[in-house]
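User: Sequence in, structure out. Go.
Assistant: Echoing your sequence, followed by the structure tokens.
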Amino acid sequence: MTKILLRALLASAALLAASPTLAAAPTSADMLTAAKGRLPQLLTCLRQQKVALVGAHRGGPLPEFPENVVATMQRTTALVPAFIETDVQQTSDGVLFQNHDDVLDRNTTGKGAIRTQTWAEISKLKVRDTTAYPTTYAPALLSEVLGWADGKALILLDVKPQTDPDLLMAEVDKAKAGDRVFFLSYTVAQALGQRQRRPDAVIALPVFDRDMLAKAKAAGLLNDHLIAMVRPGKMDAAFIPELEAMGVTVMSGTYGGPETPDAVYRTPADAGAFQALAKAGPRMIVSNRPVEAATALLADPTYARKLKACGVGH
């Protein structure tokens, strides 16, 4: 594993060295400063400037840096300007912690459904990295992530449907994080529940086709507090401009298939894969390879200037 980690670190160092603009780049903390308490205004500026923020999917995991743990988030945000996307699950005794799957088998040393196990049981586990190697890290509490992120990074909470929304909002309030987080919902009903509990919340919602768009519109969700999750390659060219005309910001992922930017990127010469997605219209791009994605966008000399116009950076 040491050799794997060394190769990953050397690859990151080479990537960062290949970007002459990175030394003057905005930081993750700059992104948080621009978004804190005014995320809708920042999103409006991103649409106007036609520029995208990069997000780290599950924190940006690598060998020895597993998904959804603070050490991984810290590594990513120290290297490039990025917000953190992280998943919230709930134990049988009502504790909120970070895990993508609703079972423990794939990415921890545990087994079975999360909803049947207590935090006392889950907290003893270790999280597996991208090679399935069990690391020294235990699953992270939501409170731990929110505490770490204060002053460091904007957080997108991917709220799994089985998570109690009242417990979630109470945890966010306890951490005084309401002005530095936004929420991902899976359904219109879940989004409406979050909006009812926090009327000023910025919510991300799948809007993969016009039927889903119609349902979001009928629910009254289409405004500058909504981020529409869109797959640009599967929609017509008018779809993203139509959403933006309604004040909605578009977010897309760089993963999920052999032709996606995460899959095709090998060296800095492949930066065009991420740049092409950004030009397609998403103003938020979530990646399993956030360092590569952010470095690719920073290679465009106008990128940092456009972010600065939106208050991200100095």
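User: And one key feature?
Assistant: The mean pLDDT is 93.
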